[in-house]
Amino acid sequence: MSLHLAPVKCDDKREEQQHKLAWFQFIKSIATFKGDLTSLTAPPFLLAPQSIVEYSTYWAEHPSLLVSPAREQCAQKRALRVLQWFLSTLRHQHASKDENGKRKRMKPLNPFLGEIFLGKWQDDAGTTQLVTEQVSHHPPATAFKIWNDAHGVRLEGHVAPKAYFSSTINIERKGYSILHIDKYDEEHWITMPKAHVEGIVTLQIAPELSGMSYIHSSSGYTSRIHYSSKGWLKGKSNSFTATIYPDNDEDNPIYVLEGRWCDSYTIKNSKGELLDTVDLASLRRTPLQVAPIESQHPLESRRAWKHVVDAIHTNDIFAVGHEKSKIENAQRVLRRREKAAGETWTRRYFNQVEKDPVAEKLSIKGKTVSGDHHDTMIWKFDDEKYRRTVEDQRNGIKSPTHSRFDSGVGFLESEM
Questions:
Q1: How far is it, in rounded angstroms, from Cα 250 to Cα 380?
Q2: Structure pTM?
Q3: Residues 191, 356, 254, 285: is their CA dihedral positive or negative?
Q4: What are the tens digits of pLDDT across the range 227-253?
């Protein structure tokens, strides 16, 4: 039996060479750049067809796991269930390939200030809802809330990514999330691990996690997750070891979880006995439901970036650049108008606060990075704002918070 190979078009080869040249020029530029790489513009062929505001969906793509701790009466087993849910959020979020095995474009679109993303999941766990908003642009920060009323579970947090170059592209995701369980009046403070990019020389780009992240519960248990990658002589990529221990007793873990966050892991008790093996690849994701683009608010991500995303899918790099510049230029004009009028953009669903008593109580001292403006921004969901916005939309009022410029996206289209 012979294997027929389709010929590679000259245009494809030329395009591949152009991409490689653009990539290495990009790497050369960021290697000498001093500052946050998130402010730089990536080559169009690297852009993913989604904005960073959609990344909050990874927290709840398995709603049954998110609400699972609410059904567990034992506090230490609840801590285990929270950790298992957290581990389930990592695989698709950091995968280098999609579900069809196709290599993903790794650079998501940078959200504009005020960009929002709304959605919900419906399955055996009931209805789980999501609200995400880009609450800051310089520095970038995304706030979100996810909740399931049927199980009394809600997750609220904010992420402020900061990227820099040191041998490779490194990303620190500052901020935190808090998972609240009504039934036990219990909170879990959650941080995210650092990430870096591997394969920048071969252009086989793949994210990898490193360092530590933590989950600390108000019931007195801490989960510490250590991430590691493949070394020169040993180890596997996407590896982790997690321990759950009572507060102030780190040397005596009650559970140890070990494996690969992209594949599977084992759970052992304090005696080293195997309790379970979890196959993450077998977990079925619940489809996210989003309103049709034509029904979305102008600030909603998929409506705002539609023309850019369409150009990305057709590999039209010129249209990508043109449509993306229209949004970015409109934002610059809007910021100048606000500054001239002595105004600031009013956040639609979130408020910036000075303190978060729950985070102050549960945060693990010395385990978080501090020292710049990323860390002084705390954003909390405003239930009254959300209720008022939903009511106004139901009554046909487009925007209760932006009477002059309902959208910072398209109001300059007639001028361009």
A1: 31
A2: 0.86
A3: negative
A4: 998 755 567 899 999 999 999 899 999
